[in-house]
Amino acid sequence: MLDKTKLPDTLPGLRDRIDEIDQKIQQLINERAMCAQKVADVKIAEQGEEAVVFYRPEREAQVLRRVMERNEGPLENEEMAKVFRQIMSSCLALEKPMRIAFLGPAGTFTQQAAQKHFGKSIVSAPMAAIDEVFREVESGAANYGVVPVENSTEGVVNHTLDSFRSSRLKICGEVEERIHHHLLVSPNINADDVTHIYSHQQALAQCRAWLDRYWPHAERVSVSSNAEAARLASEAGRNGKAVAAIAGEIACELYGLEKVSSNIEDHPENTTRFLIIGLQDVPASGSDKTSLLISAKNEPGALYRLLEAFERHSVDMTRLETRPSLLSKWGYIFYIDCVGHYSDDACKAVISELRDRASEVKVLGSYPIAVL
């Protein structure tokens, strides 16, 4: 347990102690980086360079969970995990920098989620559409992809779910990102002069009550993304036009804007869940989730018989979504998330029964439950 009483009582003494600690931290980080390089050498020697998988989602989830479990403060568990997340990202980049495709453009919440999950030592590859993210990963041009799947206020992202029907990609992880919207302007613009506010239609909807109260006279303009709104506000500012944008932290930094107001979303718990998609199966991490795509038989009680298997084997089903099958009139496909890894006995039993009762069962992947 850390003991404050053993720290110096004077400001010069505390600063000297901080310098000593910083030196030790730096030495240990470099030692960890050398271990990571050695890990890469061992993997290549044993498996060959083409077959090596450098990034192990289950291993990283286990490390971050241990960091949070042993944390004694005063830093919060999540803040401590974020520090280690970036150390791990930098060390992994020494083995092999990863190219991560995400729903762009640059500066979106999806890029923010990608950096939260993988750290900032990655090569970012913004894509114009969700299906392009899938294609980039399937072709091998990107190591992984990041796509939104659901928002706590706006609901499911149907395009993401539909993309799994014909894709061979697996879900390798998930990340939850608290969505904080900020009102942004160019540094040379007086916020009181703003006449137009740009943002994506969902962001405008998520900030409607705040805008009605504080900016009722500004015209709201819907654009393709929050990042595009930030770019337009930056461009307008350079031309002396009083335009604001609603966007996130990363867009603010990327386009050199200033915050007029922070966290203006109407629902402070507004959160988006993103999926990490890749080509490989992920071994069990000890705290996992499994996603399934199920095509039910068109007969009375079909859905009941599917759900009954989860109850009987005590497998917690955390999400159920329905989408048209597109193969038959009034046919449907079910997307189900449940707690557990597909290799667990209970999950195995459920999946086996589902295969007997459904027209098709596709395991989209088992992956660590979001740590951050």
Distance between the termini: 25 Å
Query: With helices defined by DSSP (H or I, 4 residues minimum), what is the helix count?
Result: 12
DSSP strand count = 15
CATH C-level name of the domain at 99-179 and 271-275: Alpha Beta
The string of secondary-structure elements, in order, is HHHEHEHEEHEEEHHEHEHEEEHEEHE
Query: What amount of the residues lies in strands?
Result: 25-35%
Q: Outline the low-pLDDT stretches.
A: none
The CATH architecture of the domain at 99-179 and 271-275 would be: 3-Layer(aba) Sandwich
State mean pLDDT (0 to 100 scale): 92
Helix content: 40-55%
Sum up the overall morphology in one term. globular
Topology-level CATH name of the domain at 99-179 and 271-275: D-Maltodextrin-Binding Protein, domain 2
Largest sheet: 6 strands, mixed
Estimated radius of gyration:
24 Å
**Sheet/helix structural class:** alpha/beta
The fourth-level CATH homologous superfamily of the domain at 99-179 and 271-275 is Periplasmic binding protein-like II
